[in-house]
Please model this.
Amino acid sequence: MVYGYIRVSTDKQSDNNSFPVQESAILEKYPDARIFSEAYTATNKGTRKVFKEVIEMLHESDTLVVAKMDRFARSVKAGVSTVEELLEKGVTVDILNIGRLDNTPTGKLMYTTLLAYAEFEASLIAERTKAGRDRVRADNPDMKWGRPNKYTSEQISHALSLLSSGLSYSLVAKKTGISISTLTRAKRKRV
Model:
């Protein structure tokens, strides 16, 4: 069986690493591939749940197909151990922009070197992103990062006053449209 794995950093990614681009590359070579995908930024420290599930599904004579090496792994250590684990199980690993990986000395040199480049590229991206943020912070120390607040401070204050008057969290959530978890966080911040 052929399993295709697709990873994007965000659901909104629209460059040459987008879901449709990776999927069409895999299906062009392996039309019967069973495709698995996830949005996961490589800078996260957690595990790629879908990737882990796919790896666990693979058996001898199966094929894992990934469009590009940096979609497979962004660190040499993780990539090499995964490739070696799969090859030992008898799984074929095909990285479309490189080719099939194998356990020969030349094959090991090739995928280790390419994984090193993928890790290097990820480090450069992180470094440039940090430098850009530092520049913005220097120019505008009041800059707010992250997602904007969904509710104004007046809306939160009103909801908290309803809570203080004795209404339950669920009733306040129903009246204001503000979730219980948001109310709980806001109350903790104000105490």
